[in-house]
Amino acid sequence: HGLCVVDGHDKAFILSQLEARLRKIAPDEAIVLHEAMFHDNHGLATKELDSLWGDIQEVYYEANACSNLFKDENAWVEVVRSVLRLAGMRTLSKDLELNSVQSQSIEPQYLPTLPSSPTSLSKKADLALVISLPRHCDSTINQWRKLNPGVGLSHMSDAYTRETLLTCPLEVKRQGGDYNEAVCQLAVWSAAALEKLRILATMGRDTETLEGFPYPGWTVVGHEWQLHISWKEDSGKVVIKVIFQIEAMASGRLQVMGS
Question: For the whole model, what pTM was predicted?
Answer without folding.
Answer: 0.83
